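Students often ask why we bother predicting the structure of a whole assembly rather than each chain alone. The short answer is interfaces. A chain on its own may look different once its partners are present, and contacts between molecules only exist in the joint model. In this exercise we take two input lines together and write out one structure for the complete complex. Read the inputs first and try to guess which parts will touch.
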Amino acid sequence: MRLVINKIVLFLSTLAAVLGLIFLFWILITLTIKGVAALNIHLFTNDLVNNGLRNLFIGQFILALIAVILGVPIGMAAGIYLQEYSFNNKFASFIRNLSDVMMSAPSIVIGTFVYAVVVNPVGHMNGWAGAIALAILMLPIVVRTTDDMLGLVPKELREAGVAIGAPKYKVIFNIIIKAAKVGIMTGLLLAFARIIGETAPLLFTSGNSQYFTLNLNQEFPSLTVAIYTLATMPDKHLVEIAWAGAFILTVFVLIINLLGRYITKEKK
Amino acid sequence: MNKVMDIKNFYFTYAKAPKPSLKNINLPIYENKVTALIGPSGCGKSTLLRSLNRIHDLYPGNKYEGEVLLKDLETGEMENILEYKKENELINLRQRVGMIFQKPTPFPMNVFDNISYGLKLMGKKNKSELEGRVEDALKGAALWEEVKERLKDDARGLSGGQQQRLCIARAIAVEPEVLLMDEPTSALDPISTIAIEELVAKLKDKVTIAIVTHNMQQASRISDYTAFMYLGELIEYGSTEQIFLNPKEKRTADYIAGKFG
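Now the answer. The structure tokens for the assembled complex follow.
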């Protein structure tokens, strides 16, 4: 009887796994076929206004980069506080829980929040609002990564730093963070991969722009928002451009993820 | 003989612990001698050692009572280190009282930077002076010949025994008066252990050593004085010869004979 149950469970779980994988590969294959078919050099040399993607790539990258510049220092500072200074007091567990809740918050909610506190007072969508939304989105990931990775550093190393006569902040910055560097770097890379492909937080914060611009005070070009807009257009050619954009974005995110894995493997 | 440290009526209570882990400890540490702290696990020997550079202060809520005196180099007076409150007093204390841990603790940097780290903290910036002192420290820790070609390599790539000697070099580079060693060989192989023991014998000309060990042969080999601790109390203290050959307390005799541990 037990053997029979065993076999049934094995069969069902294999079925579930195969079913999941089928859909995953379906998506990837469709994306690759349609994406590759639409790829051409024209996309990389022209802006959206001329049916190209150039300004979108650059815009998306700049938004993510500013989000990193805003989110990483704040998130790392919070992670350092949690692991090195809080001694797991009640406030720390409150922050940890809050951060975990934030991590699972739908990104559209964060977009709405930024719309209310940034876009609405300013009166129009702008690049800063998009970058802030992405920064908020990555914040809990950075907090969690820093917290966890610092937590893996043995406490003897902290004691050894203090025992040689280093003040605590120097122990943290010269020794502990260096010891946790690989883990933190990987985490930051994955956080970057997470935000680079986001649409919802940008949809009504930075919006989109057909033109090349570096001015963050106005609507800002975004690949993901463009994919969303283009994909719903009646013009078949524009839909093809959306496929190409989606394909390139997927490849880019895949590369970042692989890079993250590579760093971890190399250094450990 | 000069006392470099003197522990008087010392009590130590861990944060949130209902009772003190160390009770009424009285123990002198003599200059340029090796003092061994022995006793079964949980007897408080490491706790006592870690009080001598106040490393317990890293964690909040721990409580010291009594006196731990350290000789002031200039005036020769004994100063109670438990009265230190400011961070730079504690930093100064730790530069005078160095520490070696059970597991080697190389910093995530190259060999040279590991050794010069403490010196740089003391404000030494001159490159040739640093180079000279790093070389002296590595020679003092009997590691120079093995690493002189590898000063720019990551210290974490050294073997365990080399790492531990690196930590000793790092500690003696800042020229402390006292060196605390918390079971420094328990994570090492026999050959590395012998190297460390020989090093201890060599170092005591320059620095006073207090060593915690659960290896009684080691204590008898390398120490001049031995303190036997049990359940947070100092049961017996005396010259190593006397403790091992002619213990006064029955518990000391039983422990040394291996009747419990």
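Check your guess against this: The two ends of chain A are 45 Å apart (CA to CA).
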